[in-house]
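Lecture 7 notes: from sequence to structure.

We start with a single chain of 508 residues. Read the sequence below before looking at the structure.
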Amino acid sequence: MTYFLSLLAILVALPCTPLAYAATGDTLPVPPVQAVIESPTDIAVGRTMILTASRSIVPAGFTGKTEYEWHVADQTAPISNVVDAVYTPEKPGRIMFTLTVRLVTNDAIISQSTVTKEVVAYRRKLVLVTDPTVSAQMTGFQRDAAEQAGTYLQILRLPDPVLMQQNYERTVAFFSQNSASLTDANAVILWMDGVTGLQAYMQAARANADWMAAVRKQSILVVSSTNLHTLARAANGPFSVLRPQRIVLIRPEALQPLLLAPSITDFLVISRERGLDYLVLDTTTVGVRPWNLLSWLVNYMLVQGVSSQTIVLLLMLSVIATILAFLKQVIGVITFGLFAPSIIALSMLALGWWVGLLFLVFIITTGYLTRAAMQRWHLLYIPKVAIILSVVSITLLLLLGIGAAFGIVLSRDSVFILLILSTLGESFLTAKTEQGLKGAILSVSQTIGSALLCVIIVQWPAFQALILAYPELILLTLPVNFFLGRWTGLRLVEYFRFQEVFRHLYEE
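Now the structure, written as tokens:
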């Protein structure tokens, strides 16, 4: 009894915030209310927007009255006293909305929360998409210049450069996630060297019918430092798919005049007067010529939904094979034939050179250790290779699981490349049997080095844009390989290998 009275005395002495319950009249502490505004981040002038406080957090079990009060900027009179507010901006600029949510019991405010949110009203909206190759300071300068001219410039920054297959797919997903902002824009500006960003934008937009309908009314501007005529040829395919009002190719120095001009038409007039370098693709300038067979085929495949990166990999295969043939026939590099380094180069293009190299080293190491572990069993060659491939595939599965745990998820196509890559472990084991461990390591090193050289060459954005613009250029690899096939001279490394023999010949 004494313990109960002591506990009751402590409870009576504790301070509390009153919360009236209709049934009992008891008072208990009140959890604080939290105001939340849900609204678009930008809106065109003259369009009506709805702001809602429906996601504001009100304490469970509260039976009193919840009051809402909406204000705009410095206006004293509220625009709404209910959970939703409707507002139509009449001029461009930044509008600050303030929401106050109050909990009221017996005409007394027991808890309240205030939150603000900024919404941009615009007459003209441009969306600028960049990657890490463009500095944030530069894009911030462009945004300030646009705001002074009365243009709302929304900046979307890609997390990675658009160079390799995995980055390309992340770029497509990035465009899809920001489809609402891109759909509302009067024009979309892609500030990424080459045509890869435009291809990713095309692939993301074509999956959304509403987005494609909005693109028909937009202009797309591509900011690039590469050759605009080559870029224009490569952009014919995306234009045939998207069918915007126009695609304008400009230099970085033309970006500020674009932001200051009241419209794209006025910008083109200003560019013509100032002598700025630009090219316009529209229905009057873009046309597929049937006599350019490969160009026609590439554009047709793009229109039919084939990924541009798939087309690039197919076109680059003949280039990679020609580079490897030159390295083997003229330089004298030792590789595991032509197929193995070609597959390694393609895998590095698709996965990224460091990911492809990591998987290759992992495959070779796993295959070597598995074979060493089975050495005492004296198995026949074919079943032994089958066991090695099985172990490699299982360990690849484990490696993919570890990568997924760190947020590295490969596409479905990349998994098939890994399966093909896993068969290359057999080439190393065969070389180890025939040449010994030192010779096998030397052959593997030269094979990987040749593949990396191919990746450096064919991954160059300007070169990719050139091949996409003029795919007929890959036909030149046929006479080059014919010339290499007629090569009868010594390889370059042989001049060093047989230097002592040449010296004796010269002395005689």
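The mean pLDDT is 80. Keep this in mind for problem set 3.
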